Amino acid sequence: MGIKTEIDLYNYQSGAIDKIFERFETCPNDYHLLYQLPTGGGKTIIFSEIVRQYLRIKKKKVVVLTHRIELCNQTSKVLSDFGVLNKVINSKASLEDQEKYSCFVAMVETLNNRLIDDKLDISDVGLVIIDEAHYNSFTKLFKFFSSAFMLGVTATPLSSNVNLPMTDNYDELIVGESISELIKNNFLAMANLYTYNVGLTSLIVGANGDYTVKSSEELYTNNDMLSKLLIAYDERCLNKKTLIFNNGINTSLIVYDTFKKAGLNIRHLDNTATKKQRAETLKWFKETDNAILSSVSILTTGFDEPTVKCIMINRATKSLTLYYQMIGRGSRLLKDKNTFEVIDLGNNFYRFGEWGSDIDWHKIFRNPLNYLDNIQSDEEIEGRFKYEMPEEIRELFANSTNLFFDVDKTYVDSIQKGKSSKTVLERAIDHHSLICVENSEDEFDALILVKELSDDIDYIIKRYSKCISKSTNNFLEWLTQDYKKRLRTNIRNNFDEIKNKKLIH
Description:
Blueprint: H1 11-26, E1 32-36, H2 43-58, E2 61-66, H3 69-81, E3 86-89, E4 103-107, H4 108-116, E5 125-131, E6 149-154, E7 172-175, H5 179-184, E8 190-195, H6 213-220, H7 223-236, E9 242-246, H8 249-261, E10 266-269, H9 275-287, E11 292-295, E12 310-314, H10 320-328, E13 339-344, H11 348-352, H12 361-366, H13 368-373, H14 378-383, H15 391-394, H16 407-416, H17 422-437, H18 443-450, H19 454-467, H20 473-504
Parallel strand pairs: 1-6, 1-7, 2-4, 2-5, 3-4, 5-6, 8-13, 9-11, 9-12, 10-11, 12-13
Helix pairs in contact: 1-2, 16-17, 17-18, 17-20, 18-20, 19-20
């Protein structure tokens, strides 16, 4: 491969480089600059060209920092393609020949150890580039480079640690081309977004500000959620190369097992895999058209497979960065691929907005806490849900003209008339009894149909609990079981009466 030059760059990439070099000339030598560009926009290309030009113009050394070994190696290769002689500083690297190099690529911990041991001469380093700069692990190295220009690059200028905002470490943010512009100008594929409403109120937020693996596992490994995932795959992703993101290794393994039993071509990958296993799995994924790969967050960075056509987000997250990283894995453009599918089973679309929607990154950079405080809670999101019966279930109730029971309206009407809130559930049971009976020949058929109403009943119970402001898990579970028991009893005792009343009407 030949050495790249400016001619190979797109206009927006050249424009970004010009802006950054302007800061090199006009800002202090120890200035901290942050540059934002969406995943797939070519951040590595941009900063590799910056390194090439910087070395030629400034005659000072450069350090490029990453947080994963895969990114180290990928970055080193791109730099080499740009004609930059560079050395990867990993745990095994010898530094005896360091004077030969003007550019070093390193992971945070490895470099930190080398600098503490005084093994690397950084006296002539003028520029430090930080890839995936939103990770806060990088900040521990800043003290070593107090007189160097810091250039952080990220797709999402929102710190991984809410208590350490990026504005504390960077003087300025330059915002690059937006996702919508990159799509419009044929640099990124367009996402077709589908969401399946999920009840998340059982999830627990951990110390890191995101949902815990344990609470996610309890939710996403239950039969209902696994069935919903399979249905979503069949509806939107069948025979398309698919990435499934989960919260936790065990969840991913159970997803793998579920899909395997369904006869689908799936593998699992997590950070416990050996280098050889990882390479073999990713080779299989690349070469197999209908491949499904279930994983955790290991593939959100340092992984680039443009042939991915479907992203399934089988988890909820409070992290805007993770949300964008997951979807970004499918956004690479190919000759035969200008769109891709995104399936959301964590209400993430409601939480963050659709991928590619306008985001004021400057505002988030300046006041991240305000942005985070305004993210809707799961209760608020779920409060807007309206249960829609799936087509295959709706067909079982074809004789019924009205399948939706409005809990909120019934509750308000009951309270205004001075009736007990329990009236809501009584009327809901009457409604469900009616639609079961009018679609059945006898009570046995009607009782079988009750089982098909499980999701609808769950929705009604949740809406009712919101109305009466009582929603502990134990209470909801008891109320659901009691409702189903009363519904079955009502059908058994009153089948003929309900049937005749319907016929009279």
